[in-house]
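dude i think i finally got it to work??
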Amino acid sequence: MPRRSRHRLRRALRTVAVGYLPVWLSTLVVVLPLLWMVLSSVKTPAELISQTPQLLPAHPSLHNYVTAADRVPFPRLFVNSIIVTTVGAGLKVVLAVCCAYALVFVRFRFSRAVFFLVLATLMVPSQVSLLPNFVLVSSLGGQDTYWGIILPGLGSGFGAFLLRQQFLSVPPSLLEAAELDGAGHWRRLTRIIVPVCAPAIATVTLVSIVYEWNEYLWPLVIVSEPSMMTLPVGLTLLQNSESGAAAYGVLMAGTVLVIVPVLVVFTAFQRYIVAGLAQGAVKE
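look at this
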């Protein structure tokens, strides 16, 4: 084989080994469990517990979806998830924008210490604050209420950090010109900062929506009434109502119904998430 051809072959193999192979492996790790879940949701109990597992169902059926809809009030759970996600994500984004603006454009003592405290919240797992939050919210009468579900998650260290990095890239001359025209902090925030940094704010919004929709642990702890449960927590009702091999197919069907809405939203707007994260990562 000529030397030039060997060089091209080595370069092609290196591209596959370093570029395509990790991408395909990562994709399979993420997609295969989802594919298995969707296929299991249309299988019969006999196919799910068969000693010779089959990838494709022999007789696809929507019976598991009908059973899940009969056992769990999905419309009520869907409304609860919509309310918690809309209000929770909206307030979280507003607070993150105001916090990032104050850290960048408002001069006050110990602002750098406040920023380090915001960063420190990213290092603390949410499970650590679970018990204190439960005691506080319960003492205020927040069990089985919407505000009790939403309140502990309003602070977003990730959103404040990402937006602060984006706000630092805004040219100071824009704000100086607005200040000379008599614009206060509120007008500078709403008329200049928000329109200029809209991609980063959209990124924080979408990430917050996905997080609020999929949140499981805190709503499971603070809610006990089935009428106040969100969709992820409502899946426990399916687990409690079914037993044996039939439970697997019904649980898979319920899980598919839970993830489809947020999967559609994330797929439709994922390019904004990538663009916003890239901007926040490279600009100082």
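The CA atoms of residues 33 and 111 lie 45 Å apart.
im so relieved honestly
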